[in-house]
Design brief:
The protein is built from 14 helices and 14 strands. Helix 4 runs parallel beside helix 5 and helix 12 crosses helix 13. The N terminus is likely disordered.
């Protein structure tokens, strides 16, 4: 709802409140409580979110949660929605086996109107049917496996480019660097899907070589990579394994340029990779908000609230939450929750939203309508103790 309509509505509510107060008398003792009983009831709309908030993958999940939480707090402070927003989170630890029960808990909340999440591809595939059958819009700001939108989830929306976009772009970027590319992944839904897409694109590839993410000794894979004598290594997976893998590759004599993905774009990567971190690169369907003038207030707010810069996908999560809020702004606070849920799904499907990270328009299957221009390359800098943006991959390839 536009601000002017909200101002008119607030003026009307104020008039009604004054009239009720006049009719109830002006006794200071509080009367018999009838005036309070007649006052408009407070209401709540619940935004659910789910991802890794503890465990090995929390360093990836926490920045996403912060983007959602910051948006909810900001929206409540503005006070322009018909109901107060409440954020309810479930900690899946990124584990698809834990996710279904948590998703069921969320959809059973009678005030739930939408989900911003899940954060990881495996848990999204494990819960999509639950959310879809419940009529709940779920907007993932970070799950990139390209098969998710093939599942027929009628309430699914993805706020980032999927691996069907990132994989070929990453492959072409690796081709532009030149030489043989050894492909390594950890065999999880996200990791394997992206690594396979890269492998299909590179002109001179070796592997794939598969590590077990539950182990810490990757010596057998290190030897396989060393035997392939590559110029580059592409790792599909997450920072918890990428850092130690890179260390062990260097210790095993593999000096190839190390390139990974958004699962590795994590500020703790330097601690995990140690002296080997400098110069490691990642591709990501995420723009750096520090370089976007429209995101200055968001960056400052995250810094003030969490004492850190926005992490990977924090801006996308912030945008996703505000998209849901834009639809909620058109809803009657007294409407049945089923009507609100249906309206959010319908509104998201018709969305054309200019966020701080990008413009959001969705295809019929819920995918973000975006191409190679949505993929960026980052490089680890010891001086910055983080990954710094090198720019859009398409420009680096050219």
């Amino acid at each position: 709802m536009k601000r002017s309509r909200w101002l008119a509505l607030l003026a009307l509510l104020s008039a009604v409140t004054l009239l009720a107060a006049a009719c109830g008398g002006d006794d200071d003792d509080g009367g018999d409580g009838d005036a309070a009983d007649d006052a408009p009831a407070d209401c709540t709309w619940v935004i659910g979110t789910m991802g890794a908030l503890s465990g090995d993958f929390a360093t990836i999940g926490e920045p996403i949660f912060q983007g959602v939480e910051y948006a909810v707090d900001e929206l409540n402070e503005a006070g322009e929605l018909g109901c107060t927003l409440e954020l309810v989170s479930e900690d899946s630890q990124g584990n698809p086996d834990q996710a279904p029960a948590l998703a069921q808990s969320l959809v059973e909340n009678e005030e739930l109107v939408a989900i911003v999440g899940p954060y990881f591809s495996g848990e999204t595939l494990a819960t999509g049917e639950i959310f879809s059958e419940s009529g709940i819009a779920f907007v993932t700001p970070s799950a990139t496996n390209e098969t998710i939108d093939d599942q027929g989830y009628e309430t699914f929306f993805r706020a980032v480019a999927d691996d069907g976009v990132q994989g070929p772009v990453a492959g072409e970027y690796l081709n532009s660097l030149g030489g043989t590319v050894a492909i390594v992944h950890d065999n999880q839904d996200y990791s394997k899907g992206l690594a396979d897409a890269v492998a299909e694109t590179v002109t001179d590839g070796a592997g794939p070589f598969v590590i077990n993410p539950e182990e810490t000794d990757y010596s057998s894979v290190v030897q396989q990579v060393a035997d392939a004598d590559p110029d580059l290594v592409f790792y599909g997976g997450y920072s918890a394994q990428a850092g130690p893998l890179l260390q062990q590759l260097r210790q095993g004599g593999v000096e190839a340029t190390f390139v990974s993905d958004d699962g590795t774009k994590d500020s703790t990567f330097g601690e995990l990779a140690g002296d080997s971190a400098e110069g490691a690169q990642v591709t990501c369907p995420c723009v750096d908000p520090l370089g976007i003038p429209e995101a200055e207030a968001f960056v400052a707010g995250i810094n003030e609230t969490y004492d850190r810069n926005p992490g990977t996908f924090a801006a996308d999560a912030y945008d996703a939450t505000n998209m849901v809020a834009q639809v909620l702004g058109e809803q009657d606070a007294g409407a049945d929750v089923e009507e609100i849920r249906a309206a959010v799904v319908e509104g998201m499907a018709a969305m054309n939203y200019e966020g701080i990270a990008k413009t959001y328009v969705f295809t019929e299957t819920g995918n973000l309508d975006i191409g190679p221009e949505g993929i960026y390359v980052y490089e680890w800098s010891d001086a910055d103790e983080d990954f710094v943006s090198l720019g859009p991959a398409s420009e680096l390839i050219e």
